[in-house]
Amino acid sequence: MSSFLFSVNAVLPVFLLILTGLVLRRLALIDEGFINVSSKLVFKVALPALIFSKISRVDFLSLLNGKEIYTIFFLVSGGFFLIFFLSGFFIKNGAERGAFVQGAFRSNIAIVGLAIIINVFGDSGAARTAISLVLIFPLYNIYAVMALVIPLQKENAGTIKMILKAIVTNPLIIAVIVSLPFSLLSIDTGKVFETFTGYLSNLTLPLALIGVGGSLNFSTFSEKFSKALASALIKLVFYPVLVVIILLAAGIRGESLGVIFIMLGSPSAVSSYVMAKAMGSDSDLAAGIIVLTTLGSVLTLGLGIFLMKSYGLI
């Protein structure tokens, strides 16, 4: 019973906020404009402040785990190439294949994943996640472009430049880099600045999760449901199960196991819809995958945390 309550307390508050966003959108209390502005505010201001506040107050070197970093690189890269290769056998439409692959491997780590990790593991889990994001975000950008461009057989000369720009200018990566000297040198930011970043940090998860709920669109299911469901099952079931098996075989347990499972088992990133639309892929399919994975991850993440807690793995 204690393991069940632990998993419920970790997952349910996050998805209640997503549900709140969905209800507020249906009641017309928030609209597309609010969602767009709040998303920019979260991505460029509040979330970097959260990452800074978490990393700057912990011992970075104690959390930096080479084995963990290599494992994450292997899992993200291996997952992408496996899904990309297998999808070619049953999805012949290039636009659909790109959206399918991106939805099946790209996680909403910075919002949904981070919120659950904080609930489960607290500040150390949040700091560990922030450090991992430095590796994962560039990989996600590179593989997402590959997934969307290659099936359409496009020659996009600006692709490499676009990826590099996205990495260098990513506010979350910048926040990690800026926070490192404070962590490594144990620099005290002072009470005023600590309170200031705390206020900004407190905006992050409620505002972001309400935005996720408000952006869910159920109108795309009729024609795209079967492919969206297949991608969602890979994202929420087959890929996370494979991840856990590999981690256990590698001898990874405890907080590292839980953090990586939640990161890679989180629902598809909302940004996958934006990229699919911008690069000529199937944005309706991308939207359907986001809806299914966001709703389905209530069960899969909760069940995964419950089972690992029950067997003493985390």
TrEMBL record:
Its main location: membrane. Gene3D superfamilies: 1.20.1530.20. Keywords: Cell membrane, Membrane, Transmembrane, Transmembrane helix, Transport. InterPro entries: Mem_transp_PIN-like, Na+/solute_symporter_sf. One of its GO terms (biological process) is transmembrane transport. The chain crosses the membrane at residues 6-29, 69-91, 103-121, 127-150, 162-184, 196-216, 228-250, 285-308. It is found in: Cell membrane. One of its GO terms (cellular component) is plasma membrane. It is a multi-pass membrane protein. It holds the Pfam family Mem_trans. Belongs to the auxin efflux carrier (TC 2.A.69) family. This is Permease.
